[in-house]
Amino acid sequence: MTTSAHHAQVPHATAASAAGSPHVQRPQVYDAVLLAGFGGPEGQEDVIPFLRNVTRGRGIPDERLEEVATHYRHFGGVSPINEQNRTLRQALQQELDRRGLGLPVYWGNRNWDPYLGDAVKEADKAGHHRLLGIATSAYSSYSSCRQYREDFARALLETNLVGKVKIDKIRQFFDHPGFVTPFTESLHEALKSFTAAGHRPDEIRVLFCTHSIPTVDAEHSGPRDQNFGEAGGAYPAQHLAVAEKIMASVAEACGFAPAWELVYQSRSGPPSQPWLEPDVCDRIAELPAEGTQAVAIVPVGFLSDHMEVMWDLDEEAMEAAEEAGLQAVRTATPGAHPKFVQGLADLVEERINATVPEQRKHLTELGPWYDVCRPGCCENVRLGFQPAAAGLEP
């Protein structure tokens, strides 16, 4: 992949990343890893304050938030995402230690305690000033990449650590084998269960599912000077490329390739605003008329079984499948799968060593993605460009 040359600034970057090369060309010594999460409530009393944080600046009244809160209240007001990130942090720390890298892993969230600013202050207090960020999202879009970069910049500004603490970020890892392999393994098992139940390949459908985003955000995802074809932007193009790779691997293992498609979930915008479609539940309802008797739902857009997976898929999508008379399986997310954890450690090491692109692990033609995000990448057209780390301005 290539993008045009650019000489803008890379704010808050280490020396190796400050030049703005798509892939760093100088090794860099880091002091620590910064794991950046979305955050989630851990009790009934946390739910509305958490949702206020998620929707801040959008003027959504508490009455509307309470409608969304029912999803969390169904699970006792506890989102599993914080515990999952604690588990991932511990597993990653153990893997980095096993490799002798000597990097402590700090963890902070965008929307709930522990916050990123607190994690950055903790790192600074320990004398760790060159941080390598890992966002808990694999794909390119405003909400899954640039917003995390804005979070990094905001954390530095709010803690008055600009200039003292530097934050880089590993590349988007949508097509790294460590991320893709857990999906492939779980889908293989699901398809074996369908054939064992007597379903023919032409009766099986695979739905790769990811979070819907506004169409305009999808169109602006990825570098502005790169053409992603009919997909319209990096976000859908990356998902399609990963799904194709997973299906090719599964077909080789199973000896057959059922029909598949990319669907979306968790839409939250007003009806007047176009979002990516089709919706997963809408497609499930249509499948019986197309001869489908079994459906595998693959949450390819998600790292772990957080609320959107547990409610939108395990509750709503599975209910839709039951109503449609379909046998349905929701396959696993990477979570703290050993290969995923090893993949994250690989990404840390490639950044430390400035591994050349030709030697970086990736499974699609879109990779390996960029170490330093390109200018104008993943714009939120409603908010404009806000200060961000780990990428060329704006």
Automatic annotation (TrEMBL):
Q: Where is this region: Disordered?
A: 1-23
Q: What does this protein do?
A: Involved in coproporphyrin-dependent heme b biosynthesis. Catalyzes the insertion of ferrous iron into coproporphyrin III to form Fe-coproporphyrin III.
A GO molecular function assigned to this protein is:
metal ion binding
Q: In which pathway does it act?
A: Porphyrin-containing compound metabolism; protoheme biosynthesis
Binding of Fe-coproporphyrin III, residues: S79, Y148
Going by the UniProt record, its keywords in alphabetical order are:
Cytoplasm, Heme biosynthesis, Iron, Lyase, Metal-binding, Porphyrin biosynthesis
Give one GO biological process term: heme biosynthetic process
A single GO CC term, please?
cytoplasm
The record lists the organism as Nesterenkonia alkaliphila
Localization per record = Cytoplasm
- Where does this protein chiefly localize? cytoplasm
Protein name listed in UniProt: Coproporphyrin III ferrochelatase
**Residues annotated as binding Fe(2+):** H211, E308
Q: Which family does it belong to?
A: Belongs to the ferrochelatase family.
Q: What domain of life does the native source organism fall in?
A: Bacteria
Name of one Pfam family that matches: Ferrochelatase
Q: What is its EC number?
A: 4.99.1.9
Reactions listed under catalytic activity: Fe-coproporphyrin III + 2 H(+) = coproporphyrin III + Fe(2+)
